Amino acid sequence: MDKALLLHSVLLAFLWLMLAGAYASIGPPSFAVNHELKNCQVFYLGDECTICSLPQGWIYIGDPLFAECPQGYTELQPQAILPECSKLKAGFCCSLANTGSNGDCNDLVVNPALEKCAFVETVDGCENLPAGWKFPDFNAEWNGLCPLGFKWINEVVECQPLNWRDDIEVVDNNPLYMAIVLVAMVFALLVVKKPRPWKFK
Fold first, then answer.
1. Which residue among 27, 99, 162, 168 has the highest number of C-beta atoms inside a 10 angstrom radius?
2. So where are the chain's domains?
3. Which residue ranges traverse the bilayer (predicted)?
4. Does the predicted model carry a pTM greater than 0.85?
5. pLDDT digit string (tens) for 73-83?
């Protein structure tokens, strides 16, 4: 490892130690090697809200402070090749108070009146939220996240597409169904109006 890269790695590791002590959410740097490409590189594998893994063909060999690139291999700049990452769908990862990266917040909904935040099962096809619930605004105050001071609820907010009653309406508007209902109503009226053979004295 040349001096410039060593100094860079030392500074980054020192920064990580400081931030980890303050927030305990940032993952440590990892030194990895790719024997097929004969390359080495420092990777940063995310935090509590972004789960990352080394790309295919790369193998973790240790901490950047102590690991050495094998002789004859080329050491790349940190993050020259990015790791494979996925976002975590969790409340603390979708709050403005989060000190790390944002998680998977596509399904986030908020209730400003109750100052509550929650998730729907999926935002796809979700057009009919319960009263008071809405998708967060993408403005300077909210930035698409759960605002400061709002509380998270554990329950998933139920959401239905706008056409969720189509199956019922199809039955209600069926001509045969309407005819049967009409005949039943007429029969009921005739039974009610039929003279009684007895009289109370």
1. 27
2. 3-87, 89-201
3. 175-192
4. no
5. 999 998 899 99
